[in-house]
Amino acid sequence: MSQDSFKKYLLTEFNIQFNDDSLLQEALTQRNYLNEHQDESGRDYQRLEFLGDSVMQVSVAEYLFKRYPNWHEGQLTEMRIAMVQTRSFAHFSRVVHLNEGIRLGKGEEMSGARDRDSLLEDIWEAFIGALYLDQGLEAVSVFLDQTLFAAIDTDFFDRFIDFKSRLQEKLQKNGAVDIYYRTESEQPLAGNTQLFEASISVDDHELARGTGKSIKDAEKAAARTALKLLEDK
Amino acid sequence: MSQDSFKKYLLTEFNIQFNDDSLLQEALTQRNYLNEHQDESGRDYQRLEFLGDSVMQVSVAEYLFKRYPNWHEGQLTEMRIAMVQTRSFAHFSRVVHLNEGIRLGKGEEMSGARDRDSLLEDIWEAFIGALYLDQGLEAVSVFLDQTLFAAIDTDFFDRFIDFKSRLQEKLQKNGAVDIYYRTESEQPLAGNTQLFEASISVDDHELARGTGKSIKDAEKAAARTALKLLEDK
Questions:
Q1: In sequence order, which residues have a C-beta less than 8 Å from that of residue A105 and are 6 or more positions away?
Q2: What is the set of domains in chain A, with CATH numbers?
Q3: Which of B34, B48, B51, B81 best tests the A interface by mutation, with the highest count of A CBs <10 A?
Q4: Is B158 a residue of the active site?
Q5: CA distance linking residue A200 with residue A207, whole number of Å
Q6: In chain A, at which end, N or C, are there fewer CB atoms within 10 A of the end residue's CB?
Q7: ipTM score assigned to the predicted complex
Q8: Phi, psi angles (nearest 5°) of residue A161
Q9: CB-nearest partner of B65 from A51, A72, A77
């Protein structure tokens, strides 16, 4: 996608139009591209990445702080770490087609950098840094509401959360209890895979069940269900 | 200092008046204080600390980004790390008398927590988190302009910066050069201490000198002076 197409896409999809186009350009420019185009006077994305990194931290922290008024700081921190990380940012860079807009050096292009998570994380942060400078924190929040924050409701970040530890912490808050995971069944699926069902019991009382393609995943699903049951009480 | 006196101090000294006093109260309340005062329904400072941590990150990042338009992201990061850390926050907690306003549990009071750097760092972050929620990022910047940011001009953070590595990086940017530190003199000072003078030479050409109470400090001062000379060119 050319930078012009990308600008149109941002406007159509997210109602974002940069006041200062050079900020968007800087966020999407990799160092070796500039080495190969000595006539260009701009910068690469790295200073904007520095800024965008902390803009992401504060945006996510404020969002979680307000959305989960009853979470303690340990839960907030765990969720923030799950959201603010390479794999997550790389995913959303692809979702909003940032990867297609990057101006890469030829060597990086040849070696497949355009699809490399570490570059896509950097570009995500640089884009957020540029949007922040151009339009402020509120505009960043509106953009994240449509991307990263929306993904909370689809359980996107659950893969990064240690539900078993969290459940254990919750159950043992008022003293030791006996927590027991048991594999209840396994059944063959297509493609040489299996589906496991695990149960979790506390002091011999079954609390919840979960399924997954490994015993670990099934136990995690059971812990997640148990946590939801406990939080709804 | 009572919380009322502290509120007056904030108003007189920094022109800060909270719209929601309970936020300030929460920022200054330690968990065991609440355990000992079961009639109080408020929270302790830990959630605000979670938020304030990232507010500090973004405030400092934006300040450095704008103040040093020619620094690359490595220099920006190094300075941010120097500014956003326990010893620095504890220092400024004392400067603005936050330590005097904390509501501590009795055990913590007895054990001297009121003057403990780790607690004072937490309280600084919690206060910043409260100020951010109450009045926004701009108000935080104005407050930091009078405290943390002002300290840049007094070289307060220099103690945390590795000037020798930074100079070496700068000098060897375009290839290896021979960097040589030499102790030029030492003279006795009062109280069994000494003052050292060190010089730094590059390819046998003396670049700068510095003094300090140890050879290490003298070399650091020389590297700092050399860096300033190079940046002014």
A1: A30, A31, A32, A33, A35, A36
A2: 3-160 (1.10.1520.10), 163-232 (3.30.160.20)
A3: B51
A4: no
A5: 6
A6: C
A7: 0.78
A8: -105, 140
A9: A51
B51-60 mean pLDDT = 97
Q: For residue B196, how far is the Cα from the chain centroid?
A: 27
| Residue numbers in B near A54 (CB within 8 A) | 54, 57-58, 60-62, 80
Q: Are B132 and B144 in contact (CB under 8 A)?
A: no
The predicted pLDDT at position A21 comes to: 94
Instruction: Identify the pLDDT of residue B232.
Output: 65
Q: What is the pLDDT of residues B112-134, one digit of tens each?
A: 999 999 999 999 999 999 999 99
User: Can you give the pLDDT at residue A232?
Assistant: 65
Helices (H), chain B: 3-14, 21-27, 31-36, 46-67, 73-83, 86-95, 98-101, 106-110, 117-145, 163-171, 215-232
pLDDT along chain A (233 residues), means of 10: 86 95 95 91 94 97 95 89 88 93 92 93 97 97 95 80 84 85 90 90 91 90 88 67
User: Quick one: tokens of A186?
Assistant: 């396994």
Shortest Cα distance, chain A CAs vs residue B72, angstroms: 6
Tokens of B188: 């006795």
